[in-house]
Amino acid sequence: PKTSNMAFISFPFSLFLLIVLSLSSQLANSANNTQNFHYFCDQDNDRGNYTDNSIYHTNLKTLLSTLTSNTQINHGFYNFSNGENTNKVYAIGLCRGDVKNQTECLSCLKGSSNNLTQLCPNRKEAIGWYEDEKCMLRYSNRSIFRLMEIGPAYYASNPNIATDLSVFNETVRNLLDDLTKRASSGDSRLKYAADSARGPNYQTIYGLVQCTPDLSEADCNSCLVQSVARIPIDCCKDKIGGRVVRPSCNMRFETSFRFYDPTATPPPPPSTTNNTSSPPPEPGTCYYAH
């Protein structure tokens, strides 16, 4: 009987252990998942390469480790620099405006960091996004803070064609134009807007736009306006969904599919004693290797 009881206990324990190991494996894979990860490795090699274990390499590793473990979240936006002179590295991390969980945000950035250093080995400049745009990570040996850049970019679209095209396209354009104005007017903590509109045949069209919040209102507006203008040219003409994703901004729309968290709210206005808006915060600085 004692042997029988031990065997009975052993089976569920083994099953439990198998489940735990499986979940651990899935979590590890999700943090290093290159599937549905879009990236660019400075294809023209304008920024050059670094050698393994060089000062630049050490500074990059320290910088990415600091960024992906920083617990002082600033509404999903991180900017750091590390090093000096030719060995200085700059990095920006941005999580989508509706990602409210800090752990989820940092996990996404950690996966992006692992992917970029694996997929772009020894490149001094790289940028990557997961397909759902939950986060963006970029680094370079040049200053990228407060710099509006529209390339490199990637485009994606839903393969299905909309009905009542003139009304549908006008609804999408009006929705994204409105969201562009709302996101651009955000402060240096968050430039994000998401909403929906009623399209033809009682369909609901959902839209989302976001800029890195270090941009000025004018630069954010310019980046998004250019992105919306590319919809009928580069990716999404007459399609029921599409996205344009750039280093400084991104936009997306979908039909009958709410892909964002509608409960996300903008941060409260910063306390101020005057009516002038404060400039974006300076990049954080890490310790650097000599």
Automatic annotation (TrEMBL):
Q: Region Disordered: start and end of each range? A: 260-290
Does this UniProt record's set of keywords contain Transferase? yes
The alphabetical list of record keywords is: Kinase, Receptor, Repeat, Signal, Transferase
An example molecular function term from Gene Ontology annotations: kinase activity
State the PANTHER family in the record: CYSTEINE-RICH RECEPTOR-LIKE PROTEIN KINASE 25 ISOFORM X1, CYSTEINE-RICH REPEAT SECRETORY PROTEIN
Q: Which residues cross the membrane?
A: none
Descriptive protein name: Variant 4, Cysteine-rich receptor-like protein kinase 10
Q: Where is the signal peptide?
A: 1-30
Protein's organism: Pisum sativum
The residue ranges of the Gnk2-homologous domain are: 38-144, 150-258
Top-rank taxon: Eukaryota
